[in-house]
């Protein structure tokens, strides 16, 4: 379970939107060498913070999101909406735009 | 409950439209320093003033909006229609364009 | 009830079209000063003159327009088709493009 | 009832198409002054000559056109296909593009 | 009934496609004067040679084409695919793009 | 029945895709004169090699392709995806893009 | 059955996405001559690593992907999303974009 504090705890995405937090990029190589920032790859791994109730089919039924809070997911390189809460950066993606999740 | 006066009280959005009022931007830092206007971020937080009856599925059923008057919501950076009532500025968004709401 | 005369009385919009008459713009300030025309805001308030039978869902059922003759409505800034009848200017909007109505 | 002769009498529009004949533009003012052609407004009034069987809903049912032969209609400023029959000019519009009709 | 020979006789359009043969343009005026080719209007009249089984509604039912072999039809000015069979030029149109037919 | 060898024999198109082999262009006139390559018309005739299971209607039913292996078909001038198998060139078209077939 | 290790083993594509690994390009001719890299064709053959649960029809039913892990598939020349896992390069395609599969 993900424990949320502050504004973040009260935020509920609407429809099939998913709020995610990107994982911090590794800034050192395995051998301990600092990686200059411009060499850092795009961080496409993220953790789901919260999700909306889901999308609606054409007859009005709600289909829950395919991810839940706490899921580790793979994001597409582009897309998503940056939002700031409690002075931290989060992203909102549509459920259907998330590429996959990592099971454990 | 939100108490409305003047023209605003008589206005009913149509379909899945939502009338919102943006929250005032903080113009001072927590320490009390004035923030010059160009440094002020976009105000994406708003309060729902009133909503339409909802959208219609392909078979004609009305699906109520996912927010209600009084809800604190997070707006997308772009979009929405600026309208003026009683010399004040409001915005109309489609229900499906609102990113999320803050529960209390 | 709106009383119509001349050609206007015989005109019936088709489908979900709505014929509206824009309200005259205020050309004086509350204090009585004339407002030069270029300072006049766009007139987005209008009265519904007549409406079509409504739109059709995918299974052929007709859904009546959400406004009726006599309703005061808020128009979007762009869109609509200007038509002239009895030497007066009217506008036709699709029901779904009208932003909201004012109840009394 | 509209009496048609020649090729026109044998022509049946397909689907929800409507064959119309634009009304002649008034070339004199009410006082009898000739109006130079470039001052003549676009003729948006027309008479329905014939109509197709109608459009088809997604389940295959045919919905008849909303106008019938003889109806006086208001055309949009743009659109329509010019066709010539018996050396006269007619226009074909989709039923859904006709703005409204004049009842008598 | 249209009698077809050669390759043409074996060709069956797929879906709601219609194979048509444009009528020869009149190259003389009624008085017998030759019309120079550049003055010849576009030939929009054609005869249906063969048709596909029809289009499919969203639930999979096939709706037959609205024209049959032998029908005289009115073509839109643009569109259609030119095909050559037995050294002669034919055109393929979607059933829904044909403007109308001439009954006799 | 079409007898396939090598990789080609194991290939199954997905959905409503159709694998075709264009017929060789005639490189001599009927009288035996060689036609220079640039004068050769586009080869729009092809033989169906294999087809996918078909397209799916909105309720999930599979509708088989309208052509089968061995059919002689007429291709549109543009479109299709070139693929190479066993050092030979084939093309993949969507079933709905094939113009027609030749029955024998 | 495909045996996966590391991060790859825990990755599940969402919806109708398919994770594939492109086959290594042949870098020698059959006779053993090295092919310079710029002469190497695009590698359009790939092996399916894992698939999502499938796409959803308009009434909410899930339709499984048309390929399964281990399938040899033919990719379109363009499209797909490159992802890196365990320092190796993989691609994600929508099930509907894969051209065909090779049965054995």
TrEMBL record, chains A, B, C, D, E, F, G:
Query: What PROSITE patterns does the database record attribute to this sequence?
Result: CHAPERONINS_CPN10
* Record bears the keyword Chaperone: yes
Q: Which domain of life is it from?
A: Eukaryota
This protein's GO cellular component annotations are: mitochondrial matrix
As for family, the record states:
Belongs to the GroES chaperonin family.
One GO molecular function term of this record is: unfolded protein binding
Q: Which HAMAP family match?
A: CH10
Query: Keywords in UniProt for this one?
Result: Chaperone, Stress response
Q: Write down the Gene3D superfamilies for this protein, in alphabetical order.
A: GroES chaperonin (2.30.33.40)
Query: Under what name is this protein listed?
Result: 10 kDa heat shock protein, mitochondrial
Is Flavoprotein tagged as a keyword? no
| InterPro entries for this protein | Chaperonin_GroES, Chaperonin_GroES_sf, Chaprnonin_Cpn10_CS, GroES-like_sf
One short Pfam family name for this protein? Cpn10
């Amino acid at each position: 379970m993900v424990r949320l504090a502050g504004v973040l705890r009260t935020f509920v995405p609407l429809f099939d939107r998913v709020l995610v937090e990107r994982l911090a990029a590794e800034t050192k190589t395995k051998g301990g060498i600092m990686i200059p920032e411009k060499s850092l790859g795009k961080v496409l791994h993220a953790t789901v913070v919260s999700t909306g109730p889901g999308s609606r089919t054409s007859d009005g039924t709600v289909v829950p999101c395919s991810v839940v809070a706490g899921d580790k997911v793979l994001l597409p390189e582009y897309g998503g909406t940056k939002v700031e809460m409690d002075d931290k950066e989060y992203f909102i993606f549509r459920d259907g735009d998330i590429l996959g999740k990592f099971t454990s």
